[in-house]
Design goal:
Elements lengths: L1 E5 L3 E8 L3 E7 L19 E7 L6 E11 L8 H17 L7 H16 L7 H13 L11 E5 L4 E4 L6 H14 L13 H18 L9 H11 L4
Parallel strand pairs: 3-5
Antiparallel strand pairs: 1-2, 2-3, 4-5, 6-7
């Protein structure tokens, strides 16, 4: 979900739908008054039911009705989860541009949001696992061939290759963590003891991987807030 005001009372927003993929919508009068203000539904990763007008060939479709599909309870209230949601929403806005049906991708996103909302404690690794899994649906999932000889991740080809002279012990550790994360089932990464430093390095590694394979990723505005939040959350971990 990515939204911005249009005029005095309307909002234009982008979202990913089950039947049409990514779509650009306008909610006319959605910010009309405090009593009828529905713009609070247009939050990062919110799951919505939409009725849409398809009466013309305009790139921006009009919304007839909007409501929550599944209420999210903890994401809007928890600073860690909400920060992750903002980051992942920006990733999806920048990286997912297909305007056609992709039900496996839609199901993955729908399940990921519900998982994030339902877990009891914030997971500082969730956004990293999400990036790994999302790359599978976007067509550039890495090959997990990490071994004693192939210990360096090549982001261009998405494989692990032989180390070169400039590699450090820290780089090997982060590449190893990536290989273990690629083995994870679902959204859970069992290495809960990952250090704050390695978590940030793994995030940078994955973002570089995305920038190579997706146009328009650029500098994500939410990364700085995300890392600052998790630095505070995991202080000393």
């Amino acid at each position: 979900m990515h939204a911005f005001p249009f005029g005095e009372t309307s909002t234009i927003f982008h979202c990913y739908t089950e039947e049409f993929g990514r779509i650009t919508l306008m909610g006319k009068g959605i910010r009309k008054s405090k009593k009828n203000n529905r713009s609070n539904l247009l939050q990062p990763l919110f799951l919505l039911n939409l009725e849409i007008y398809f009466k013309d060939n305009s790139e921006i479709k009009l919304v007839k009705e909007i409501s929550r599909s599944v209420p999210l309870n903890s994401i809007p209230e928890n600073i860690v989860k909400s920060t992750q949601a903002i980051f992942l929403a920006e990733i999806l806005y920048r990286g997912v541009r297909e305007e056609h049906e992709n039900r496996p991708l839609f199901t993955f996103l729908y399940n990921a949001v519900q998982y994030l909302d339902l877990i009891d404690r914030p997971d500082p690794n969730f956004h990293l696992v999400f990036l790994c899994l999302l790359s599978r649906y976007l067509g550039f999932y890495p090959k997990n061939n990490f071994s004693e000889t192939n210990r360096l991740f090549d982001p261009v080809n998405g494989i692990f290759i032989r180390e070169y002279n400039g590699i450090t012990d820290s780089d090997i550790t982060v590449n190893y963590l990536l290989s273990k994360m690629l083995e994870s089932e679902g959204f859970v990464f069992k290495d809960s003891g990952m250090s704050r430093e390695n978590r940030n390095k793994l995030l940078r590694l994955l973002l570089n991987f995305y920038e190579i394979h997706l146009e328009g990723m650029g500098n994500l505005k939410s990364v700085e807030v995300l890392t600052a939040t998790f630095d505070s959350f995991s202080s000393g971990s």
